[in-house]
Design goal:
heterodimer; A: 407 residues; alpha+beta; Alpha-Beta Plaits; 5-stranded mixed sheet; 4-stranded antiparallel sheet; B: 351 residues; 11 helices; 16 strands; globular
C-alpha cells in the first residue's frame, strides 16, 4: 500500500498532549481499514465535514443491540472502511483491569477489527471502533468465549456505569462496584433486547460529588448519601488548624447551609446535623477529620438526560433515602426500577426519554403510577398556582356537605 | 457459539491485593504531587498515578500501558470516567521511577486536584454521522494549549471540560465548567428521492421539536419551515434524507459554568457565552484562544475553591460579560422551551 500524505492531521501530532493521530497511525501500520480511516479523516479536515453514514441494522444472534452500524459515504473510494461498525463491550465495574484481560481485548481486536478503540465510551463501554459486517458474529463469539459480553445500544437499558466507589474512595456511601455489577446482571434482557420507547441509563455514584455525572447523564441517578449526622474527629480538626489550614474561610464560610461552626479558642468544629444537606464540601476539604454518618444509603433521582431534544434535564429526587445493601440483593431498587420502566413503557412516546415523559404527563401522574408517596424532598418549593387535578377520593374526603352532615 | 447474557467480567478479578485488603476501609486521601493520589486505608496505602489519554487509542497503546502496569503495578490499572489511566501502586518506592518512565515516554501525568482534567468528548469526524465539528482534534488543540494547567495544580478549583461535536450535546457538555459544542446553523437540505424511497414520513415529522417539518402529500415528501428550524439535526438522525452538515457555516459554541457535583451549590447547566467560532481545522486557534481568555479571567478573579460557574454566579453574568469583553447578543437569550427561568425578574443587577 502506498504511503499517502496527511499534512493537516500531521499538525495534530505536535504539542504535549497525547495525539489521537499518532494512535490512528499506529493502528494503520497493521490494518488497512485504519490506514483508510486516516485518508477519510484528512479529507474531513480539508473539507470541514464528516463522511460517515448511519443506517443498515447490524447485530449478533440473540441480541437486539450492542453493535452500531457505520458506513463511509463513498464506499468505492474507501472500500476498506465501506463498513466500519462499532462494537460495545460491557466494561468491568469501575474500569478496573488486570493486564491479562486487557491483552485479551487487544489480541481479539487485532484478529477481527481495526485495532482502534475508545477507552471508554461516555456511557462506559469498551468501544471497538471499526469492523466489517461479516466479522461481527465472530467477534461476539470470541469475546464471549473469553468472558466478555456486549453492551447496550438502541432503545434498551444502556450499559450501566459506576464510580470507583469502595475500591478506592473513602467517600463511598454504598458499594457502587457491586451494585453496578449486580444490577447489570439482573437486567440482562433489558440491556440486550431493546423494547422501550427509547434508551434508559443508570449510573451509580458513591457520594454527592457524583463523579459519574449521574444527575446530568443518566435517566436513573443513584447517588450515595447518609441520613444521620456527619462525624467529626476533633483531634484531626486540630491537626488541620495547626498546619494553618483556613477552616473558617475554606470550610465554614463555604458551607451552603452554614451548619458548621469552628470555635477558634477550643479549635473544635461542630455541626447542626439537621441543617446539613450532605453536599460533601467539608468532607472534600477535610477528609481526615470529617466523614459521612453511619446510616448510609443512596438518593434515587429520575429523568436526567442531555440536550437533544427538549433541552437537557437533570434528574429529580424520587426516593430521598434507600438502603443499598448487597445482602438484600438490591431488591428494593430493582423493584422500583421495574415499576418505573413499566410506567414509562406504557406512557412514553417513541424516542421520548423518561424525564420528558414525566414532564409531559406530570410528576403527580408518574408518582401515582409507580406508587411512590410524595414528600417535600422531591421539590425545591411547592407550586405557585392553584391548578390542582383533584380526584374523587380527595373530593369525598375534603368537601363540605351543604346540610352540615359529615361526609 | 456465544454465551448469551453472561454479563460483564467480574470486577473482583480486576482488583489488586492492595485494594482487596482495604476495600471499603479507606480512611482518607491526599495529593502529594500533581498526578498522584495517595489513598490511606486501614491495612495499607495505595498510590495512583494518573495519565491523560486521547481516548481514541490503538491496541498497541493499551499493550504499552500493560507493560508498564506489569513492571510497576503487579499488572493492575484502571481507567477513570474522564478517560484517564490510573496506575495502581502499592509500593511508594516505585512511584517516582514510574513517573520518570512515563515522562520519558511522553505520557501526560496530571489531571488531579485544582487542575484541568481530560476533556470528555465525542467521536466527531472520526466516526459520527452528524458532526458539526471534529472532537478529537479540537480536544488535542485545547489540551496542548492548556497543558500547563493539566500537569500542575494552580487553578482556583477543578476544571472539567466537555466537547460535543453537534447540538445533541453528548459528552456531558451541558454540565461542564466549559463546554465546547459543535453547532449547525442552517436548515437541513431535503433529498426528496431518498424520502420517497425509505423514510417513514410521520416519524420524521414527529421528530422535529419545533414543528418545522410538515408532510407534503402532493410531493410524497416533506417541507421545512426554515424560520422554525433551530438546526438540532434530530430529523437527520431519523432520516438520512435530511442532510444537515454545512461546511461553510458549521462551527463551535462555548458554554460555561456547569457542574454535576453537589458540593457547595446544586448541580448546574452550562450557559452559552460565545454563540459561534469558526471551524478552523486543524488547530482551531479561535477556540483555544477564547477558552484560554475565560480561564485566565477566572484565575485572576475567582476566590480559592470557586469553580467557574460559582464565580460567575457570585459576580453576576452581566458582570462576567463586561469583564470578559465578550459581546452579548440576542443569540445568547434563550428562546427555547425552558427560557422563562433565565429572564431577570428583579430590578437588581450590575453593569
Amino acid at each position: 500500500m502506498t504511503e499517502k500524505k496527511t499534512p493537516l492531521l500531521d499538525e495534530l501530532e505536535k504539542g504535549k498532549w497525547p495525539s489521537f493521530v499518532t494512535e490512528i497511525k499506529r493502528a494503520a501500520a497493521k490494518n488497512s481499514a485504519s490506514a483508510e480511516l486516516l485518508q477519510v479523516l484528512e479529507r474531513s479536515y480539508r473539507e470541514r465535514r464528516g463522511h460517515w453514514k448511519h443506517g443498515g441494522i447490524v447485530g449478533v444472534r440473540g441480541y437486539g443491540g450492542g453493535v452500531i452500524g457505520r458506513y463511509v459515504d463513498e464506499p468505492h473510494t474507501y472500500p476498506n472502511v465501506a463498513e466500519f461498525h462499532t462494537v460495545r463491550i460491557n466494561q468491568p465495574s469501575g474500569f478496573f483491569y488486570n493486564t491479562k484481560t486487557l491483552r485479551t481485548i487487544c489480541d481479539l481486536w487485532e484478529k477481527h477489527g481495526s485495532g482502534l478503540t475508545n477507552m471508554h465510551g461516555s456511557t462506559g463501554d469498551i468501544i471497538l471502533l471499526g469492523c466489517k459486517t461479516e466479522s461481527i458474529q465472530p467477534i461476539f463469539d470470541d469475546y464471549s468465549e473469553a468472558g466478555f459480553d456486549l453492551g447496550g445500544s438502541g432503545s434498551c437499558l444502556r450499559t450501566t456505569n459506576c464510580c470507583v466507589g469502595p475500591g478506592r474512595c473513602e467517600f463511598a456511601c454504598y458499594d457502587t462496584l457491586e451494585a453496578c455489577y449486580n444490577v447489570t446482571n439482573e437486567f440482562m434482557d433489558e440491556l440486550h433486547r431493546p423494547m422501550w420507547p427509547y434508551k434508559s441509563k443508570i449510573k451509580f455514584s458513591g457520594c454527592a460529588n457524583d463523579c459519574t455525572g449521574s444527575i446530568a447523564r443518566s435517566d436513573c441517578s443513584v447517588i450515595g448519601t447518609w441520613r444521620d449526622s456527619l462525624i467529626i474527629d476533633q483531634a484531626a480538626v486540630k491537626e488541620y488548624a495547626a498546619k494553618g489550614f483556613d477552616i473558617q474561610g475554606l470550610v465554614c464560610d463555604k458551607c451552603p447551609t452554614k451548619c458548621l461552626t469552628f470555635n477558634k479558642e477550643t479549635q473544635e468544629l461542630s455541626v447542626v446535623a439537621e441543617d446539613c444537606t450532605r453536599c460533601m464540601h467539608c468532607i472534600n476539604k477535610m477528609p481526615k477529620a470529617i466523614t459521612a454518618g453511619k446510616e448510609k444509603g443512596a438518593t434515587i433521582l429520575i429523568g436526567g438526560k442531555s440536550t437533544i431534544v427538549q433541552s437537557a434535564f437533570m434528574s429529580w429526587v424520587i426516593v430521598p433515602f434507600m438502603k443499598m445493601e448487597a445482602e438484600d440483593d438490591y431488591e428494593e431498587f430493582k423493584d422500583l426500577m421495574r415499576r418505573i420502566w413499566e410506567w414509562w413503557d406504557e406512557n412514553g412516546k417513541t424516542r421520548e426519554r423518561i424525564g420528558e415523559t414525566i414532564y409531559r404527563l406530570g410528576m403527580t401522574n408518574f408518582l401515582k403510577g409507580i406508587e411512590v408517596a410524595p414528600v417535600p424532598q422531591m421539590v425545591f418549593r411547592p407550586r405557585a398556582n392553584p391548578y390542582v387535578f383533584w380526584n374523587q377520593d380527595d373530593l369525598d374526603k375534603s368537601g363540605t356537605a351543604l346540610d352540615g352532615s359529615a361526609l | 457459539m456465544a454465551k448469551l447474557d453472561q454479563g460483564p467480567p467480574n470486577y473482583k478479578e480486576m482488583l489488586p491485593p492492595v485494594i482487596l485488603e482495604n476495600y471499603g476501609k479507606w480512611k482518607y486521601h491526599e495529593i502529594p504531587r500533581p498526578g498522584v493520589l495517595k489513598h490511606v486505608g486501614e491495612a495499607s496505602t495505595l498510590y495512583s498515578v494518573r495519565v491523560g489519554t486521547p481516548r481514541l487509542v490503538s491496541i498497541d497503546f493499551i499493550r504499552d500501558v500493560c507493560a508498564l502496569a506489569d513492571e510497576y503495578c503487579d499488572g493492575f490499572l484502571r481507567w477513570t470516567t474522564r478517560n484517564n489511566i490510573e496506575f495502581l501502586l502499592s509500593d511508594e518506592a516505585k512511584v517516582n521511577p514510574l513517573i520518570d518512565t512515563l515522562n520519558a515516554k511522553g505520557f501526560a501525568v496530571g489531571g488531579t486536584g485544582e487542575a484541568i482534567s481530560n476533556i470528555i468528548h465525542t467521536q466527531g469526524w472520526v466516526h459520527c454521522h452528524t458532526p458539526a465539528t471534529d472532537a478529537s482534534g479540537v480536544v488535542k488543540a485545547v489540551m496542548d494549549d492548556l497543558y500547563e494547567y493539566f500537569n500542575s495544580m494552580k487553578l482556583p478549583a477543578k476544571l472539567k471540560m466537555g466537547l460535543a461535536c453537534c447540538l445533541n450535546m453528548c459528552g456531558s457538555t451541558h454540565c461542564s465548567d466549559i463546554g465546547i459544542v459543535g453547532v449547525h446553523r442552517t436548515p437541513p437540505r431535503i433529498d426528496h428521492d431518498k424520502i420517497r424511497k425509505g423514510t417513514e414520513i410521520p416519524s420524521l415529522v414527529a421528530s422535529c421539536p419545533t414543528g418545522a417539518i410538515r408532510p407534503d402529500p402532493k410531493n410524497k415528501s416533506v417541507v421545512v419551515n426554515n424560520d422554525k428550524c433551530m438546526y438540532c439535526g434530530n430529523c437527520y438522525t431519523m432520516s438520512p434524507a435530511m442532510e444537515i452538515y454545512d461546511a461553510k457555516n458549521d462551527g463551535i459554541a462555548i458554554l460555561i459554568g456547569g457542574k454535576v457535583s453537589n458540593a457547595r451549590s446544586a448541580p448546574s447547566f452550562s450557559r452559552m457565552v460565545i454563540p459561534f467560532l469558526p471551524n478552523t481545522a486543524p488547530r482551531w486557534p479561535e477556540t483555544t484562544e477564547a477558552i484560554r481568555k475565560i480561564i485566565e479571567l477566572w484565575i485572576a478573579n475567582a476566590q480559592k475553591g470557586e469553580r467557574i460557574g460559582e464565580w460567575v454566579e457570585r459576580i453576576g453574568w452581566e458582570r462576567f460579560f463586561s469583564m470578559a469583553e465578550l459581546p452579548f447578543s440576542d443569540m445568547l437569550i434563550d428562546d427555547y422551551i425552558f427560557s422563562r427561568e433565565t429572564f431577570r425578574t428583579s430590578a437588581s443587577f450590575k453593569y
